Amino acid sequence: MNNEKKLKILLIGPVSTGKTTIANFLSDSNENSTGDNRPTKGVRILEFVVQGVKTKGIYQRSVDVELWDCSGDNRADTLHFYSSPLPAIPAGDHRTRLPLHLELCLEYAYWSLCCPFRYETCWPAMQHAANGIVFVYSEASNQQRSALNKLYNYFVEEARFPDNCCFIVKNQLSDEEGGRFAENPLPNLNHAVVNLEVKGAEFKKSFSSFLSAVVKSGS
User: Fold this and answer.
1) All domains of the chain, ordered by start, with CATH?
2) Residue 136 and residue 17 in contact, taking contact as beta carbons nearer than 8 Å
3) Of the four listed, 6, 56, 143, 194, which is most buried by Cβ atoms within 10 Å?
């Protein structure tokens, strides 16, 4: 262990994109590795050492990492099968009611916009003193793009956090060609497509290069 401070790295992204699996892989941890895909409650903090990080020229050293596996739990996900209609229109009110299925769509859209992340009130604590951010997504859906943009806006743009201390990972959860998505949804950031089962060692090298950029930035 070196005497320098730990690097606080945030691992953030939409729900069910495999952030905890990535966190366990990077830290060589078996914690919460039951195979069940359950949203993280709040945040998990894992501490580990990454060896051989290039910092200046060819100089290699170990880096202490404090990895914050942040929940992407989305309240709106529980409303996919929401069945209660909007409040009834009082008798004598001649406003036209929308069909029930449209009312439910509007209800879902309202909650999606107003309450997209269950632990959003914890974001300031997560962001405090962060040195680097790894964004994780798993598919090219509009829902995941929207979540990534919201996270990027808060943690990077509003905080004026440097792009070179950020990294975005497409966690490929299957070997199917159709699951691949090469386009970077956050084009300002370095991007990698990851399959931990096939190219896990390659991903660890990419993470080490990311840490090198964070160390060099002095953030």
Assistant:
1) 7-75+125-217 (3.40.50.300)
2) yes
3) 194
Task: Report the alpha-carbon distance of residue 212 to residue 205 in Å, rounded.
Answer: 11
Q: Is the pTM of this model over 0.85?
A: no
Q: Output the CA torsion sign for 150, 77, 197, 130.
A: positive
SS (H, E, C) the chain: CCCCCCEEEEEECCCCCCHHHHHHHHHCCCCCCCCCCCCCCCEEEEEEEEEEEEEECCEEEEEEEEEEEECCCCHHHHHCCCCCCCCCCCCCCCCCCCCHHHHHHHHHHHHHHHCCCCCHHHHHHHHCCCCEEEEEECCCCHHHHHHHHHHHHHHHHHCCCCHHHEEEEEECCCCCHHHCCCCCCCCCCEEEEECHHHHHHHHHHHHHHHHHHHHHHCC
Residues 185-213 have pLDDT tens digits of: 999 999 999 999 888 999 999 999 999 99
pLDDT, tens digit, for every residue of 71-95? 887 764 443 333 344 445 455 554 4
Contact call for residues 169 and 207 (beta carbons, < 8 A): no
The span from the CA of 210 to the CA of 219, in Å, is: 13
135, 192 contact by CB (below 8 A): no
Q: How confident is the model at residue 176 (pLDDT cuts 50, 70, 90)?
A: low
